[in-house]
């Protein structure tokens, strides 16, 4: 009878080998690898290889967020270009007539065209060139706005998942997030930088 109770006690003893299957969740800075859990209990790290794969997945998640941001920006640009191409020709003609009228009002002097262009260039370099903002509004259709909303929602979902991963306070996870942000921005935001917000009047009227 005593041997049976001894065997029962041995089965109830905790595993002294260190291979616990419980999640180690900390609200403080940590460098936990084994038995770390992220988001759910099913994402339970039981080996170094599984942790390495999770790190790669986190990096890919942050890169995907940057890619979706670029996709949303490119889609908005696509809509703007389509809207501009659908603008009636008389609008452009009206803009040219307005430029010509302004040039006639200010150009009552006897300066030559070369001097006028040189003066415009000097004003532009000096930062005093007047800029003309051409306001054109475009309202997307239902399907276009739906796609824009879908891309925005996808950005929110990815951003919140990354935020929840960062709240694990795991140093390795935070490093992976930083690496993903660097690589993602490097890949998807490598495009020409716009230097001028407005269009110089000299370019519109004399370009």
Structure description:
The chain is mainly α and 207 residues long. The protein is 62% helix and 2% strand. It has helices at 2-12, 48-85, 89-106, 113-125, 142-166, 171-188, 201-206, and strands spanning 131-132, 199-200. It has a two-stranded antiparallel ribbon with strand order 1-2. The chain is elongated.
Question: Which key terms come to mind for this protein?
Answer:
207 residues, mainly alpha, two-stranded antiparallel sheet, 2 strands, disordered C terminus
How many strands, which pairing sense, and closed or not: the largest β-sheet? 2 strands, antiparallel
Rounded mean pLDDT is: 76
Using only CA atoms, what is the Rg? Answer: 31 Å
Continuous helix count: 7
- Level of helix content? 55-70%
Distance between the termini: 103 Å
Give me the strand/helix succession: HHHHEHHEH
Overall morphology: elongated
Question: What topology does this entry show?
Answer:
Blueprint: H1 2-12, H2 48-85, H3 89-106, H4 113-125, E1 131-132, H5 142-166, H6 171-188, E2 199-200, H7 201-206
Antiparallel strand pairs: 1-2
Helix pairs in contact: 2-5, 2-6
């Amino acid at each position: 009878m005593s041997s049976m109770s001894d065997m029962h006690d041995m089965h109830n003893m905790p595993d002294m080998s260190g291979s616990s299957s419980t999640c180690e969740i900390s609200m403080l800075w940590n460098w936990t690898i084994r038995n770390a859990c992220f988001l759910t209990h099913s994402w339970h790290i039981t080996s170094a290889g599984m942790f390495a794969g999770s790190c790669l997945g986190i990096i890919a998640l942050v890169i995907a967020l940057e890619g979706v941001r670029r996709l949303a920006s490119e889609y908005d640009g696509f809509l703007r270009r389509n809207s501009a191409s659908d603008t009636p020709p008389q609008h452009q003609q009206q803009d040219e007539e307005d430029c010509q009228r302004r040039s006639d009002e200010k150009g009552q002097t006897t300066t030559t065209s070369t001097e006028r262009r040189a003066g415009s260039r000097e004003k532009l370099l000096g930062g005093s060139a007047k800029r003309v903002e051409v306001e054109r509004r475009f309202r997307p259709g239902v399907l276009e706005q739906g796609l824009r909303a879908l891309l925005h929602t996808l950005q929110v979902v990815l951003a919140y998942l990354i935020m929840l991963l960062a709240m694990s306070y795991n140093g390795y996870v935070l490093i992976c997030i930083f690496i993903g942000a660097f690589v993602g921005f490097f890949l998807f935001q490598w495009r020409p930088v716009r230097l001028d917000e407005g269009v110089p009047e000299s370019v519109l009227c004399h370009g």
